[in-house]
Amino acid sequence: MRRRTPMVTQRTCGVRALTMPYALRRHAVSMPVRPPDRPVRRPGPLDTPPGTPENRYVTSQEFRTAEVRLSDAEREQAIAVLREHAAQGRLSHDTFLTRMELALHARARGDLTALVADLPAEPPAPAPVPPAPAPLTGALARTVAALSALMGRVRDAWRFERVPRLMLPEPGPFPLRIGRDYANGLRIGDDSVSRCHAELRQADGVWLLRDLGSMNGTWINGRRLTGEAPVSPGDVVTFGRIGYRLAAR
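The structure corresponding to this sequence follows.
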């Protein structure tokens, strides 16, 4: 004989109501509850297509933006460039009219750029040439020349006064040796002067100065001596760093 499962009763308002069996009620907590079905959402335009990474950048093909319309000033500037090149002979009259018509109906900057892409860029404007100074008058030019000559004479006189004088020797059969060695007729004790630096002699009434292969050279009135050259009273001769002004007896 099958055993009957006891029923759990619940008193409600004095009426005994039957509820679920006790065995089922005891195991009701452990029974899984199925969640309600969610509505299926269709992919929108912002969803990432399947098979692509989530951090993919959105391209302009997916979100097209309206291009900025050209202004009248940009069209006028392009037409001015075309007019300038047509005036220089780079564009024919028909080509200029065709490109001007295209410039007036252009909508993007790329259209204007294509119209002038084959034209050379204009060279930069040359720098302004300063005006030439006005020519000096005759009297002013003579005054400036006189002042320049006076300053030159003052400078030479000041320089000659600072340079010690070297008296020309008496004419003789032997030349005057000049150098740092004690055996020379004119000894100059300076490191810039060689041991046998130069020699001074007279031939046919003319004094001749010759360099003897010195290290720092011999100079006459600021010019380096090569070989032998005539000198006279008033000339400034320099041996190394030491200079003299020749003077007659």
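The longest helix spans residues 138-162.
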